[in-house]
Each structure stands twice: as structure tokens, then as C-alpha cells.
């Protein structure tokens, strides 16, 4: 991702054989790793995009990630038994990886900061809540409805300031909206059609589908524009090993151990991490307005995230006021 890898909320629903809860110290360590790697991943992307075009970089990244995933756990995976199921998993992967990362990478290439990119994408639980409320007929609790309004207000504050400063163009905002819509669609699609798919097989199919689409796009659209150097190599190691394999595995480990609520909550910790790391690397200090908007947005996501958490667990129950 412009971040770590795929969107957290796109995680498959844990099966009935979920493992028992993790020890507190283990949970804290894994959660800390996830937040830091995911948040800093947005800045790693910004660094890589100085030398590589988005589609080309994503295509190479996922080609390498596929090889690593197949070697790491492809042998023991339970692969889908039908062509139809293979197709469903591939579609979920394209939405959650290719669409998500293609949009978010281009948003940064067009000038959107890593912190703002992470903040807008952290609204995914809010958008999921709106969709399950409007089209899946699940009523939101009053606190959740307020949370949606608060979260959107916080993002509007940040985006408005960035737009006035000339660092959030219409094109970059359009790209990040595409990214947000894709990852939300991937969440819903995977939950509906791929919940029972073996995680190891799903990861490999996601990576293969993304590489198969993004590599040709990189050649046709960008002329496969990559200037190979140590920086690009380091970014690829970060994204493939620490993010695509490491953070993604931790994400699903947490989900399998019944930490759906905690995983959703981790989303609103990544924008501050991205902003701080970007500050450290690019000396772009977030303004007071940005910190305020980020705090307001995070509160809104926190108020609403119970919907995303329940949905990820597959136990979303209608809440009545």
C-alpha cells in the first residue's frame, strides 16, 4: 500500500476455528509492529516514487512478493476447488491491492502527503458503516452516526487546509477517493465471497492477480519507468518483507485470535505515524490545523469502528436506538 500492504479491513472473516486470545505482551508487540510498519509504509512509498512510477513499482513489488509468499507458505495452502472461487479471490485481491495501491500511489505522486493519504484511507470503516447501513439494512447506533459526521468533519478540515495551501489537488484527491472506494469494495466482496478461503492461498492469489494486472499497466501506461538504485531496492525490501508478508500476516493472526475490534481500531493510529515519519524524512512539519483535523477524524473513526469490527468478525448485528 502506499502504506504497508493491503487494507486491514479487507481481511477475511475469521473462521469458526479461531484461536484463543493472545497473551497481552504478545498482543501489544504485534499491534505496535503493525501500526509502525503500516504507517511508515506510506512514507516508504513516497520515497520509492521519487525513482519509480506507481504501476511499475507495484507490479515489481507484487511479483517479488508472490515468489516470497509461494516459498514461505504456498506449499501447505488449501487452494480453491473451483474456477469460480479462484475468480472471486482474484477479484477481491485486485480491489484490495491493485485498486487500493494504484489510487493511493498516484495520489502521492500527484502531491498528496503521506499523512493526508493515510488519514483519508483510515476512513474506510466509516464508509463501510455507511454502506452496511444504507444498502445492507443495518441500522447504526446514534454514537456511530455521530462518529461518521465527526470523522468526515476532521478530514474536511485537513483537506481544506491542504487544498488552500496548494498541496491537495483535484487529481490527487480523485486518486485517493478511487483508492478508498476500491478497498471498501474489496472488504465487502471478500467478506461475501471469500470468507472461507484459506488465508495462505488467498495471499498468493491476491499477489498473483495484482502483479498480472499492474506489470502490463506499468509497461503500457508508464513505459516501465523505474530507475534502479539502492533506495528503490530498500523500499522493495520494506514493502515486500516487512509489509506484504510481515504486517499482513500479523493482521490475519490478530483476526484469527479474536482481535477484530482491535485490528479496526489500529487503523486510526496509522495517520499520526505516517505524519511523524514523513516529518522526520522530508522535514514537512504538520500544521496545527492538520493535527487538529487528524485528532477529530480519529475520534470519529473510533466512534464508528465497532461496525467495521463486527462486520469483519461476520457477526454484525442490527443495532437499534
What are the main properties of this structure?
disordered C terminus, 321 residues, mainly alpha
What does this structure look like?
The structure is a single chain. Helix content is 74%, strand content 0%. With 321 residues, the protein is mostly helical. It has one domain (20-313).
Task: Please give the structural blueprint.
Blueprint: H1 24-48, H2 54-74, H3 83-109, H4 114-121, H5 124-134, H6 142-165, H7 170-193, H8 199-222, H9 230-256, H10 260-266, H11 270-282, H12 288-313
- Tell me the total number of β-strands: 0
What gross morphology would you assign? globular
Q: Calculate the terminal CA-CA distance, rounded to whole Å.
A: 37 Å
Outline the biggest β-sheet. Answer: none
β-strand percent reads under 5%
Order of helices and strands: HHHHHHHHHHHH
Radius of gyration: 18 Å
Instruction: Count up the domains.
Output: 1
Average pLDDT rating: 84
Quick synopsis:
The protein is mainly α. Helix content is 74%, strand content 0%.
Amino acid at each position: 500500500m502506499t502504506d504497508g500492504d493491503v487494507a486491514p479491513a479487507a481481511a477475511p472473516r475469521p473462521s469458526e476455528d479461531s484461536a484463543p486470545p493472545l497473551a497481552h505482551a504478545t498482543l501489544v508487540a504485534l499491534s505496535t509492529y503493525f501500526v509502525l510498519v503500516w504507517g511508515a509504509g506510506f512514507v516508504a512509498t513516497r520515497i520509492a516514487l521519487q525513482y519509480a512510477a506507481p504501476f511499475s513499482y507495484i507490479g515489481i513489488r507484487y511479483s517479488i512478493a508472490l515468489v516470497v509468499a509461494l516459498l514461505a507458505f504456498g506449499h501447505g495452502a488449501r487452494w480453491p476447488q473451483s474456477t469460480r472461487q479462484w475468480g472471486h479471490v482474484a477479484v477481491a485481491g485486485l480491489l484490495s491491492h491493485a485498486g487500493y495501491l494504484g489510487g493511493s500511489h498516484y495520489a502521492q505522486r500527484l502531491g498528496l502527503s503521506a499523512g493526508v493519504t493515510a488519514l483519508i484511507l483510515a476512513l474506510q470503516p466509516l464508509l463501510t458503516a455507511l454502506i452496511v447501513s444504507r444498502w445492507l439494512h443495518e441500522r447504526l447506533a446514534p454514537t456511530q452516526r455521530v462518529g461518521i459526521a465527526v470523522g468526515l468533519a476532521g478530514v474536511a478540515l485537513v483537506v481544506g487546509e491542504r487544498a488552500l495551501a496548494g498541496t491537495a489537488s483535484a487529481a490527487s484527491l480523485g486518486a485517493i477517493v478511487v483508492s478508498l472506494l476500491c478497498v471498501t469494495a474489496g472488504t465487502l466482496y471478500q467478506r461475501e465471497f471469500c470468507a472461507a478461503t484459506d488465508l495462505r492461498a488467498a495471499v498468493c492469489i491476491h499477489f498473483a492477480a495484482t502483479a498480472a494486472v499492474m506489470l502490463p499497466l506499468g509497461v503500457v501506461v508508464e513505459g516501465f519507468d523505474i530507475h534502479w538504485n539502492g533506495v528503490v531496492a530498500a523500499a522493495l525490501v520494506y514493502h515486500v518483507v516487512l509489509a506484504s508478508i510481515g504486517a499482513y500476516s500479523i493482521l490475519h493472526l490478530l483476526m484469527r485470535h479474536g482481535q477484530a475490534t482491535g485490528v479496526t481500531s489500529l487503523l486510526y493510529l496509522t495517520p499520526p505515524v505516517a505524519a511523524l515519519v514523513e516529518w522526520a524524512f522530508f522535514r514537512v512539519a504538520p500544521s496545527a490545523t492538520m493535527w487538529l483535523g487528524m485528532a477529530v477524524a480519529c475520534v470519529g473513526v473510533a466512534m464508528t469502528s465497532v461496525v467495521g469490527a463486527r462486520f469483519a468478525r461476520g457477526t454484525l448485528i442490527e443495532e437499534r436506538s
